[in-house]
Amino acid sequence: MERDDEVMRGTAARRYWAFGAVLFTFIIVIFLSFQALFDQKRIIEQDSRVNLWFLAQTEIEYLKLMEVLTPSITKDQDLDYDRLVEQFELFWSRLPILLSGTQSERLRAVPGLTKTVGDFVLTLEELEPYLADRDKLTPERLSEVHQRLDALRSPLHELMQRGVTFDYVSTSGDRRRQEYVYYQLLSLFIGTMLGGLLLLFMLYREIVRANRAYVVARKAEREASIAKGQLVDAIASISEGFVLYDEEDRVALFNDRYKELHPPIAPIMRVGISFEDMLREAVQRGGIKIASDKAESWIAEVVAQHLNPGAPFESRLADGRWLRISERRMSNGRIVGIHTDITELKQREAELTQKTALLQATLDNIAQGVCVFDAEHRAITWNERFFNLLELPPDFPLMGVTYPEFVRRLAERGEFGEGTVDEAVASHLRFVEHALAEGGSGRMERRRPDGRVIEITVNAMPDGGFIKTYTDVTERIRAEAERANLLDQFYASQKMQAVGTLAGGIAHDFNNILGSILGYSHLALEDLPQDHPARESVEQVATAGARARNLVQQILDFSRRTETPFLPVNLTALVDEALVLMRSTIPVTIAIEKDRWDEAHVYGSATQIHQVILNLCVNAAQAIGDRPGTIRLGLELLEDAAPQLPTHAGRLADQAWSRIEEVDGRYRMSFGSLAGRRHVKLTVSDTGSGMSPTVMARMFEPFFTTKDIKGGTGLGLAAVQGILQQHRAAIVVDSAPGAGTRFEIYLPAAEGAAPADAVSVTEPSGQASERILVIDDDRTLLEMTRTTLERQGYRVTAARDPTDGVRAFAATPDEWDLVITDRTMPRMNGEDVAREILRIRPDTPVIMCTGFSDAVTEAKARSIGIRAFLMKPIVGKELLSTVRGVLDGTHRQAAE
User: Fold this and answer.
1) How far apart are CA 232 and CA 46, in angstroms?
2) What's this model's pTM, rounded to 2 decimal places?
3) Considering the domain 239-341 in this protein, what is its CATH number?
4) Range from 268-272, 603-607, 703-707, 807-811 carrying the lowest mean pLDDT
5) Whole-number Å distance between alpha carbons of 367 and 417
6) How many whole angstroms separate alpha carbon 786 and alpha carbon 822?
7) Residues 6+ positions from 276 with CB-CB distance below 8 Å
8) What CATH number does domain 771-888 carry, 3.30.70.100, 3.40.50.9100, 3.90.380.10, 3.40.50.2300?
9) How many CA atoms lie within 13 A of 111 on its CB side?
């Protein structure tokens, strides 16, 4: 069969080759003929162009010659002899080419061309002698040459016309002959091609007839072979294991994948082995884990199941892999088995189950409530927080519920407050639709019936569904309100800090000035006799200086820039003293009354507390104004002050103003915190104009006042706040517009009564002789201090430059009994001076003076080794007492 196929294919090939060779030879011949024809046509065209070029060049050279000659005849310009001779020779050189040569052979066939060109040559020969000698070329001769040459113009032009006409006629004839030959060849080529195609068609029909019977005979066998091969290839290429059992349950066909899926039986796998033998081999090789005593019964059970195949089942092999086995009995009794490795699928299912559980656990543990709706807006998953926030019962039907139905059920439970159910459903549907249409997200807040504020966000999912997130923002809303309140307090504290910085800068320089004024005033008073006329003026200066000192102290008090030692103070007596002073300064239309009046003692500064009482009373009197009114004061000793404090949301906090709260139509604000349990409550109330919330929020701001420019400075209440904060006192302010104001001050109570003399002061003796070094950069203050000390008998050396003072001390350290230094000086401050002095001689008594300091307290100064710490301005008696106390060793003991 294969031999016959080869013979038939060889015969057909030879026939095709013979026909192809003939057809190829014919095409080559026709191609060469066409090429020769085209070459001949190109030659004819080329000859025509050459002929016309010769004629045209002859006439052009003639015209150039006449162009040179004519101007000289008309006397438009002088004759260019050299150019004339050159053009004459060029024109003459063109004529012989027309009479001889192969290039102009066709032109000589033009009628009259030879004779006309010959006449031109004879004429030029006659004219040549005229042009041979330039000196003999007279105008007459030149005119004759021009006439003779001009006579050639008409014959030359006629010759050109005859040449063009002749060339056109001869070239057209050649072209017609060429076209005739071309069309003959083209007809021959077309006819030959048609004949060849017809011959090829007849040859093809003969070959087809010869092979048709053979093709039909082999077709069925070939198709069967192809189908079998395709089936085998398909079975070999599938990713599943394939096995076919015959009617006797023996393997008839299998693929390599089946062997890969069953490594234990791969070595024995072959066509003809029975299913039962494969099972037994698998058990023996460990491919199937089963007890040896149960192996046979298990094999029999599996064989019975195999012979009656049913639904697909899954089986796990000994190596941990999973197989999905599908067996089916065919109509001819054979069994087909498909084994699929589903190990990866099982792993993914386990991972998916784990991730689903993890996702649900994550959802259940986040603080927000989450509910997910699919593309059809049906609920598919949620977390426990979602149920808790909406207070849904555990058995609330939600799975598969559409979002409109879900909203309706919530509305029917009263979740959305007032309004109909339909209105609530329509509103929430519009919100979701708008959120999904506008960027895929939306946010809203609503208050639940229980008062909690819920923030709801909607976020679109790629599949068309969306996620609703519910967040309880009740605390955040409260925190934001509290934050706004704290921000206001922060701005207020920033203002206080700025004013305090300004106050400190003023106090430093102003105290130096006041020290000089007060010091020299006291020195002047010591020098003036009692009946001197200037004594009263000096006393007024001293009084004004003292008032200025108190003003600076007030500025430092509200800015909390001073450190004042606290001692037990009889608050009852202090308030009585202040009321006596107040009675003479406020209008008689204002009554001062007392409520409860306990005997009370507190720890603090008597001067500062006295200032608080005066400021509060003055402020109350100004609030009442010219109208009749009452200022009421009270003192109450509290064993436990906590129950007395406000119970509203603005309860006292450490060093922070609470936000203003409205209680029974009045506004209340508090500040500070309680230090311990026992407190004294000082109450100052009035029947004045009261305060609005806006004014109350700013009443302790420095320089803030509701009065005109002459009514007050705005420092009174600011000083009160600074002093009370320093005393660790709590303040509660209660007021209402038109209904008066009430201040409650909670001061830590002192144990027992205040001692009569808390500190013993050593009076100056006037007979001192110690040597003192005074260092201060202020010249006036330095001279005043030196004068004051020298009048008491001290030997004083004054130094304006701290480095000079330290140098003087280092020169003779044992001769100095005391060093007094200012704190703020250029190049070296007081602490550096004290350290250097004590480094040189550690037992040297040192006193430091300053007009203001928030960096160096008395405790810090003592830690350096300084014996005393004095605040400027220092009056002469205070300076002398401190110096004497330090020198005698009593000052430190008293202070401690």
Assistant:
1) 74
2) 0.35
3) 3.30.450.20
4) 703-707
5) 24
6) 13
7) 249, 299, 303
8) 3.40.50.2300
9) 4
